[in-house]
Specification:
Keywords: ATP-binding, Carbohydrate metabolism, Kinase, Nucleotide-binding, Transferase. It is globular and about 65 Å long. It is α/β, with parallel strands linked by helices. The chain has 13 helices and 18 strands. Bound molecules: adenosine-5'-triphosphate and ligand LCNOYBR7.
Length: about 400
């Protein structure tokens, strides 16, 4: 049987977040990293997530990679697609949410919802405005994001700058009046992109029910989880147990989000840490060499922390900084595995992409979550490595400390 749902995530932590939501709803889920080779197959499963690293690359490249992933999923016989982006709508006026959604719609036809709301992560949308906890997106720490600063919370307006097509709104009052009214409201909108309000799980379920025959939906892990809950009967919801390999642990942190900085504080109070300074040493091989020397000296019985994360005022600036740090953290991940590390907690979506790419990991089994949306992912190789790919904003303050004990929720 072919998988019933094919998801394309624009970064690796987003991929693990949506995979966790699908698994939690009872879908047997496979998570792949990067555009799969034409011949790549998947084990028997209900959903496949292809996690790309397309959030912050030029829009034409993001479109090309997404369409290649969609072609591969379609060749598996997948009938429905989901484009997963960040619940904080991370993007710029150049893209990539609008251009990617447009390209997928040109191929699949019809219209789509734009629904980043993930109430379980504190992301809600009301009258098209995205809230993070109890503040507007534009008042949240996302306004200082190093790659995709979000300074406008009105998603109709934000997406309107990324697509030549008009953008509509499905307001909460309509969502709450039931599927028939949602349908009526949508019929009255002559647009292909509809920003959909949702502040509770029940709203996401209503949206999933009202659009169950749409070939493409887009949003955060919240709506995808609702689609899975609508598709899988409650009695059939049993999550697969995935054991973690034993071995020392390392934390690799490149995320500069407020949540990561708090989690790092706790981890650094418990474990030895080494800070990467890309200004003093702007060449990845050299920056990594100093850190490897530190790693070899400090990787004993307990976990260690390698990080570049910094609050906005201490961050390095320059066109190549992110690239230098991501390459360096990738090199360090490789060396850590050579040194016997079997548990790696990575903080940050771009950073996770760099680490999985450097480790050559193309497929993992998704296991239990250490925190909501942060599952353990175990490679399917003979000598498996467990990866915890943490979205910048996710997790309780002690997540990184608990992760080093292989903790689950
Ligand atoms: N000290 C620093 N100065 C400047 N840039 C940094 C610094 N440390 C990390 N970065 C870069 O900031 C970016 C952080 O993005 P990343 O996606 O890894 O984290 P995030 O945005 O918090 O997570 P997510 O995308 O999951 O929300 C990376 O490209 C990283 O290399
Ligand atoms: O949706 C989210 O917030 C996360 O899955 C994510 O994409 C962060 O990179």
């Amino acid at each position: 049987m072919s998988p019933v749902l094919g998801c394309i995530a624009d970064d690796h932590t987003g991929g693990s977040d949506i995979a966790a939501a699908l698994r939690r709803a009872g879908m047997r889920t496979v998570l792949r990293f990067g555009v799969p080779g034409e011949r790549a197959g998947v084990p028997d499963c209900d959903a496949v997530v292809v996690a790309l690293k397309t959030r912050s690359i030029p829009a034409p490249d993001a479109v090309a990679q997404t369409l290649a992933a969609q072609r591969w999923l379609a060749a598996l016989g997948v009938p429905r697609f989901y484009f997963k982006y960040c619940s904080t709508f991370d993007s710029t006026d150049a893209g990539n949410i609008g251009p990617v959604a447009d390209a997928l719609l040109s191929l699949l036809g019809g219209r789509t919802l734009i629904c980043p709301a993930s109430p379980e992560h504190g992301r809600t949308t009301y009258l098209g405005h995205l809230f993070v906890g109890d503040v507007l997106l534009s008042d949240s720490p996302m306004r200082h994001h190093p790659l995709t600063p979000m300074t406008d919370a009105n998603l109709v307006r934000v997406l309107g700058r990324q697509t030549p097509h008009p953008v509509g709104l499905l307001p909460l009052t309509a969502v709450r009046r039931g599927p028939a009214f949602v349908q009526e409201h949508l019929d009255g909108l002559d647009v292909r992109h509809v920003v959909a309000d949702a502040t509770e799980e029940a709203d996401l379920l209503a949206l999933a029910r009202a659009t169950s025959d749409w070939p493409l939906l887009t949003g955060g892990a919240g709506l995808a989880g609702a689609i899975a809950r609508v598709a899988v009967p409650e009695a059939a919801r049993a999550a697969e147990i995935v054991p973690l390999p034993p071995g020392p642990g390392v934390i690799l942190a490149g995320s500069c989000s407020a949540a990561t900085l708090g989690q790092l504080d706790q981890a650094l109070a418990r474990f030895p840490g080494h800070r990467l300074d890309p200004v003093a040493t702007p060449v990845p091989a050299e920056l990594a060499a100093v850190a490897v020397e530190w790693l070899e000296r400090n990787l004993g019985d307990g976990p260690v922390v390698l990080y570049s994360s910094a609050p906005a005022e201490q961050r390095a600036t320059g066109p190549r900084i992110a690239e230098v740090l991501e390459e360096t953290l990738g090199l360090l991940a490789r060396r850590a595995v050579e040194l016997g590390v079997r548990r790696i907690a990575v903080a940050g979506g771009e950073t996770s992409g760099a680490v999985t790419t450097a480790l050559g990991v193309d497929q993992v089994v998704v296991g239990d979550e250490a925190d909501r949306g942060v599952p353990w992912c175990v490679t399917t190789t003979d000598d498996p490595v467990a990866l915890l790919l943490k979205s910048g904003n996710f997790g309780r303050p002690d997540l990184l400390v608990r992760a080093m004990d292989g903790a689950t929720r």
